[in-house]
Write a structure and sequence with these properties.
Layout: H1 2-30, H2 42-55, H3 69-77, E1 87-93, E2 96-102, E3 107-114, E4 120-128, E5 131-136, E6 143-151, E7 154-159, E8 164-171
Antiparallel strand pairs: 1-2, 1-8, 2-3, 3-4, 4-5, 5-6, 6-7, 7-8
Length: about 180
């Protein structure tokens, strides 16, 4: 029993050491001058932070959310804004309805229109390997969902917590990168 207890405390010590290394890497990367620049988009800032953390073998978990290789892959692939998703959509969830605008420059805006408080949030979005990622400017972790159903004028995301969101197109918007 003593050996098991000692292994447990060793594990706790290693976990604390790893966590303190993660926090140090996040703090170090957060000091990069470019991240405080007003000339970079939120997407560019998050990509710079992720690249810094990856270079230090740290994870994005130090900034409050889960990390895994797919998140780095998605960030590295952005901006990836397929033309078929650019526009204004209604997003239906069991907890309410939002109006979501996906722009071709990777920006998005969500506005609650039914259920919950009336709120608006912004961030950047993209699609990589049949996954849509929504990186909110004011919160972490991002929402990443598998695109399960993808039809003309609608699609469904299944998020990590198995929540389903159904998007139905409201209207298209002008795009500099898409024809038609």
């Amino acid at each position: 029993m003593g050996l098991l207890l000692m292994a447990f405390f060793l594990y706790l010590g290693m976990a604390r050491h790893t966590r303190s290394m993660q926090l140090a890497a996040v703090q170090e990367c957060g000091e990069i001058k470019e991240l405080r620049s007003n000339t970079l988009s939120t997407l560019e800032k998050v990509k710079a932070l992720a690249a810094c953390l990856k270079a230090r073998n740290a994870s994005l978990s130090g900034v409050g959310g889960p990390v895994n290789r797919p998140m780095y892959e998605i960030l590295e692939a952005l901006p990836a804004t397929p033309c078929k998703y650019i526009g204004v959509w209604y997003a239906f969830r069991k907890d309410g309805v939002q109006r979501v605008t996906f722009k071709d420059n990777s920006d998005f805006l969500t506005e609650s229109i039914k259920g919950g408080e009336a709120t608006a949030e912004t961030g950047f979005w993209g699609v990589h390997k049949q996954q849509m990622a929504l990186f909110y400017e004011a919160s972490w972790p991002p929402e990443i969902g598998n695109i399960e159903i993808d039809e003309d004028g609608s699609f469904m995301l299944t998020e990590r917590n198995t929540t389903h969101t159904v998007f139905v197109r409201d209207k298209t918007i002008p795009s500099t990168s898409c024809k038609g």
